[in-house]
TrEMBL record:
Subcellular location: Cell membrane
Transmembrane stretches, start-end: 49-68, 75-91, 149-168, 295-315
Gene designation per UniProt: cobD
Organism of origin: Undibacterium cyanobacteriorum
InterPro entries: Cobalamin_biosynth_CobD/CbiB (IPR004485)
Listed name of the protein: Cobalamin biosynthesis protein CobD
Length: 316
């Protein structure tokens, strides 16, 4: 049932992708803002309490409905699984940004490419050249694919899968909303959301990096992972981007010794700008965006194949 739930959800999303501003996400965001307003007194333990309130308020009802569906009918549980996976996945949620950047770069329209990237990451990209824009789009797409697809897959495979998938997506959202956003970066309130998401994403991030290596250039991906992942302040982002960059032969995270690169939360992360050995690979070009798309699709097929084999093993 797990394999079919993910398959049907992916098919539905291909036909009807959720908008970023859909009512479900909007209500969840408003709820998180209200809880922050109620609980934020400037201390880390207040953030811990708020995190459990928000995550518990969404995961516990999801688990309860799943249990009731199982008691009522396996088909009802299957439908509930599809609904939850559809709501938590984001395979095509941001694809229009990526497509617009790719088209602008191919046409040589640097201004449009910078504008689309800036809208995607909510950041001023007016000083970026074509290489920086291509690099930023590749980095953002790899991180987004992990957090919106592969991380959800991993947690959906856990017991009470729908509730675990909701927990992962909420933990990822709160780590961005309460820890990585500009207004919250200096506050202690978001430290717990950031630290707990690190552990929640510890295994999924490494599995995504392994998948990138398997379906791409394995040797370069593993080499880059081992030697260059520590260039990012965020260890998990470093693992995914170093492996992904090595897999497609593109140098990521080194915008000509600039101090900032893009991260998945539409903010910036410091990069080690010391004079060290250059990461293997070529500078990002418009062609690199197509390579990134191929890498993500191959990784998705690998996950689905492994899940299908696991499902067969369970049935037998």
């Amino acid at each position: 049932m797990t394999f079919l739930s993910i398959l049907f959800a992916l098919l539905i999303e291909q036909l009807k992708p959720l908008r970023v501003d859909n009512p479900v996400y909007t209500q969840v965001q408003h709820f998180a803002i209200k809880v922050e307003t109620w609980c934020n007194a400037g201390k880390a333990h207040h953030g811990r309490m708020a995190w459990f309130i928000v995550v518990g308020a969404l995961t516990l009802p999801t688990a309860l409905v799943y249990w009731l569906c199982l008691r009522f009918s396996p088909f009802a549980a299957f439908v509930w699984n599809v609904v939850i996976v559809y709501l938590t996945l984001g395979f095509r949620r941001y694809s229009h940004y990526f497509t617009s950047i790719q088209a602008a770069l191919s046409a040589g329209d640097e201004e449009a490419a910078r504008r689309h990237l800036g809208e995607w990451i909510n950041k001023d990209c007016s000083s970026y050249d074509m290489t920086d824009v291509a690099r930023g789009a590749v980095e953002r797409s790899l991180i987004a694919s992990h957090r919106n697809v592969f991380g959800v897959f991993f947690w959906f495979l856990m017991p009470v899968g729908p509730a675990c998938a909701v927990m992962y997506r909420m933990a990822e959202f709160l780590s961005r909303e309460w820890a990585e956003s500009e207004r919250m970066q200096e506050e202690e309130f978001g430290k717990f959301a950031q630290s707990i998401f690190y552990w929640i994403d510890w295994i999924p991030a490494r599995l995504t990096a392994v998948a990138f290596a398997v379906v791409g250039n394995f040797e370069d991906a593993i080499y880059s992972w081992r030697n260059y992942a520590n260039r990012w302040n965020d260890e998990l982002i470093g693992i995914i981007l170093s492996s992904g960059g090595g897999a497609i032969g593109v140098r990521l995270g080194e915008p000509e010794n600039k101090a900032l690169i893009l991260n998945a939360g539409a903010s910036a992360v410091d990069v080690d700008s010391m004079e060290i050995e250059s990461q293997p690979g070529m500078e990002a070009t418009p062609r690199a965006l197509q390579s990134a798309v191929g890498l993500v699709w191959r990784s998705l097929l690998l996950w689905m194949l492994l899940l299908l084999l696991l499902s067969f093993a369970v049935w037998l």
